[in-house]
Amino acid sequence: MKKDSEAKSKFTLEENFARLEETIERLESEDITLDGAFAAYSEGMAILKECSGQIDRVEKQVLKLTEQGELEEL
After folding, report:
1. For residue 32, what are the CA distances in angstroms to 10, 24, 46, 49?
2. HSE (CB half, 13 Å, CA atoms) of 70?
3. Are 51 and 9 in contact (CB under 8 A)?
4. Separation CA 19–CA 49 (nearest Å)
5. What is the pLDDT of residues 24-74, one digit of tens each?
6. N or C: which end of the chain has fewer CB within 10 A?
7. Backbone angles phi and psi of 9, in degrees to 5
């Protein structure tokens, strides 16, 4: 059974990268408030964590594929 933190994301990795780009653009905006910057930073860190989990799952699948010769969900 998978943990909740390992559950599939509602966004693809590519979508998360696009969301991260948008967050970075907001952070780079000259008219962002301190509160807005903190909120954008927090959101960006959450997106990064999600991306990291998605990449880890893919890496594990690839490792499993190279060991067994077939793709197995972990």
Report:
1. 28, 12, 19, 23
2. 1
3. no
4. 13
5. 999 999 999 999 999 999 999 999 999 999 999 888 887 777 676 776 655
6. N
7. -75, 150
